[in-house]
C-alpha cells in the first residue's frame, strides 16, 4: 500500500506512521550533515538560535553532489544517521518532526523520538541519482561556507522513504531481525 505524506511532518501525522511502512514525502525538507549539526549545536549553546524553526520539519542527512545542467541538485543519497546522534535529541526536544538517513540510531535518539512523537525515516543508500529525481528545487538557506554540508531547503515530490523508528517505539531494524530469525 502506498502512503503519501505531506512535509513538514506534524505530531498528528507522525502518530499515524508505523515502522515498516513505505511512504512518499511531498513538500519541504531540509538537509543537514555533521558540520551543520555541529554549527547548530554551537548556536544553541551560545544562545543564538537556529537558522530555521525545526518544529515539525524534516532533516535529511545528505550532502549533494554538484547539479547537472538543468537539474536543481546532483546525486542526493543518504548519509549514515548515527553521525548526528549526539546532536539529535536536542533537536527533537525542540520539535523536529522527522529525520531521513540510513543505518541504526542510538538508544538516546530512539527514546527522544518516542518522547517527542517524531519518526526516523530511511532512504535507500546507493540510490542517490534516482532519489535526486524527486527533488524539484534546492536552495542554500544557512551556513553557505560549509559547501555541500550547508543547510539546504528542498522541495520534494514523491520522495521514497521507509519508516524505521516510529513514535510508538517500534524499530524496523529490530523487528526485521526477529522476523528473519523465525
TrEMBL record:
PANTHER family, A to Z: L(+)-TARTRATE DEHYDRATASE SUBUNIT BETA, L(+)-TARTRATE DEHYDRATASE SUBUNIT BETA-RELATED
Keywords linked to the UniProt accession: Lyase
Domain Fe-S hydro-lyase tartrate dehydratase beta-type catalytic: 8-175
Any one GO MF annotation of this record: hydro-lyase activity
Protein name (database record): Fe-S-containing hydro-lyase
Highest taxon of source: Bacteria
Gene3D superfamilies named in the record: Fe-S hydro-lyase, tartrate dehydratase beta-type, catalytic domain (3.20.130.10)
Family (UniProt): Belongs to the class-I fumarase family.
Amino acid at each position: 500500500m502506498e502512503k503519501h505524506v505531506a512535509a513538514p511532518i506534524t505530531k498528528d501525522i507522525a502518530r499515524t506512521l508505523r515502522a515498516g511502512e513505505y511512504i512518499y514525502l511531498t513538500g519541504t525538507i531540509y538537509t543537514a550533515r555533521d558540520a551543520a549539526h555541529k554549527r547548530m549545536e554551537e548556536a544553541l549553546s551560545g544562545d543564538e538560535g537556529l537558522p530555521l524553526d525545526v518544529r515539525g520539519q524534516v532533516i535529511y542527512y545528505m550532502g549533494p553532489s554538484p547539479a547537472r545542467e538543468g537539474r536543481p541538485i546532483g546525486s542526493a543519497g543518504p548519509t549514515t544517521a548515527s553521525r548526528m546522534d549526539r546532536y539529535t535529541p536536542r533537536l527533537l526536544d525542540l520539535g523536529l518532526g522527522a529525520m531521513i538517513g540510513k543505518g541504526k540510531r542510538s538508544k538516546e535518539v530512539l527514546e527522544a523520538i518516542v518522547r517527542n512523537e517524531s519518526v526516523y525515516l530511511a532512504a535507500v543508500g546507493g540510490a542517490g541519482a534516482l532519489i535526486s529525481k524527486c527533488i524539484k528545487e534546492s536552495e542554500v538557506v544557512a551556513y553557505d561556507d560549509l559547501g555541500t554540508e550547508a543547510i539546504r531547503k528542498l522541495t520534494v515530490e514523491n520522495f521514497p522513504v521507509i519508516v524505521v523508528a516510529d513514535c510508538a517505539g517500534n524499530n524496523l531494524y529490530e523487528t526485521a531481525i526477529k522476523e528473519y530469525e523465525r
